[in-house]
């Protein structure tokens, strides 16, 4: 049986019970702020749709604030400075999308702010995109820099206020929007469950290779499964990606619909990793196939117009 609490604040004291034959625990993770003072209060994480809406709303605010009569150029530049903390795939894609937006759409919609917006990426590590091959990571870093993204490696963040971020290396840096994309932390539910968990790094539920969880004494619990970001298979560390979650979900669907006594274990198939690093021409890139090799090419004028129309519809 599960004891549940409604997620609505006004119903937070209510409880209800749900009986199950089989349960799959898959609550994901939350963003890790590493306890750095001011981050939780001032930075925007990029995890949920609500976070994405917050980014959009803050972006509109800083553009409007920078457009107010009498705004000095220094104030405009500070307001339109977006800092992204975290040089993993999420942080880099956010930086790339913002760069495209500033280089292209914003210049059209806010011509008086053209050239005043900037994006910085800070990471404590000596390289960005750690899951990728070193050469690709270096290529991505130089691609971002050529798009005028200020990439700060080995950057140690000390604290954050409403409009500055302080690092050991550069002191206080002004910003208008701070995006926090530094990785995952376990959610409270995972911390409280009395099940076996990983011992190092991100706390995740441990499962066997059929995705069943373990009781604290190591016995397998046959009707309880765990997957997604909140779980990992004993003896192997799979990344917290949708790719892993989807493959495990497909596996469990087959397992639960099968009448076989002994099912084969789950096996992960690694697919290509892709990260968008922005387009120097402010245009989408399409891929054309020449023989078997995809070749990137700028989109045609018609494709570009279609893309701009879509952006106009969603309000960006
Ligand atoms: C910005 C961003 C970009 C990404 N891009 C990629 C990508 O390109 N490719 C890729 O493979 N992966 C990507 N990922 C990772 C991918 O999103 C996650 O690995 C995937 O969503 C994990 O799925 P999940 O079901 O474990 O968790 P989630 O998708 O986080 O879903 C968990 C759900 O459980 C709910 N929940 C939490 N606690 C409780 C509770 N106590 N009771 C009930 N419900 C609860 C949460 O509200 C949430 O809806 C990205 C992640 C982010 C943040």
Automatic annotation (TrEMBL):
Biased composition (Basic and acidic residues): 307-316
Domain FAD/NAD(P)-binding, first and last residues per copy: 12-249
Claim: Chaperone is one of the keywords in the record: no
Pfam family, one: Pyr_redox_2
Stretches the record annotates as Disordered: 289-316
Record keywords: FAD, Flavoprotein, NAD, Oxidoreductase
The organism's place on the tree of life at top rank: Eukaryota
Family the UniProt entry places it in: Belongs to the NADH dehydrogenase family.
Name under which the protein is recorded: FAD/NAD(P)-binding domain-containing protein
Organism: Sporothrix eucalyptigena
């Amino acid at each position: 049986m599960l004891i549940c609490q409604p997620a609505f604040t006004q119903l937070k004291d209510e409880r209800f019970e749900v009986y199950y034959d089989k349960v799959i625990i898959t609550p994901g993770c939350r963003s890790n702020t590493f306890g750095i003072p001011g981050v939780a209060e001032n930075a925007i994480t990029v995890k949920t749709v609500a976070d994405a809406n917050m980014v959009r709303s803050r972006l509109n605010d800083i553009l409007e604030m920078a457009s107010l009569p009498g705004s000095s150029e220094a104030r405009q530049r500070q307001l339109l400075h977006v800092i992204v903390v975290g040089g993993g795939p999420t942080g880099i894609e956010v930086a790339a999308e913002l760069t495209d937006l500033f280089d292209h759409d914003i210049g059209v919609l806010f011509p008086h702010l053209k050239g005043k917006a900037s994006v910085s990426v800070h990471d404590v590590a000596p390289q960005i995109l750690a899951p990728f091959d070193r050469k690709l990571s270096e290529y991505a870093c130089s691609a971002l820099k050529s798009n005028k993204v200020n990439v700060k490696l080995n950057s140690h963040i000390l604290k954050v206020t409403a409009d500055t971020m302080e690092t050991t290396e550069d002191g206080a840096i002004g910003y208008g929007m701070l995006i926090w994309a530094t990785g995952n932390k376990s959610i409270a539910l995972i911390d409280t469950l009395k099940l076996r968990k990983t011992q190092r790094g991100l706390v995740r539920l441990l499962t066997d290779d059929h995705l069943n969880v373990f009781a604290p004494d190591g016995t397998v619990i046959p009707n309880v499964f765990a997957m997604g970001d909140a779980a990992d298979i004993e003896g192997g560390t799979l990344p917290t990606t949708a790719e892993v979650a989807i493959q495990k979900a497909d596996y469990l669907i087959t397992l639960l619909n099968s009448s076989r006594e002994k099912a084969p274990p789950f096996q992960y198939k690694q697919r290509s990793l892709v990260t968008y690093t922005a387009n120097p021409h402010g245009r989408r890139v399409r891929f054309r196939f020449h023989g078997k090799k995809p070749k990137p090419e700028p989109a045609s004028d018609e494709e570009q117009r279609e893309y701009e129309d879509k952006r106009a519809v969603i309000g960006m």
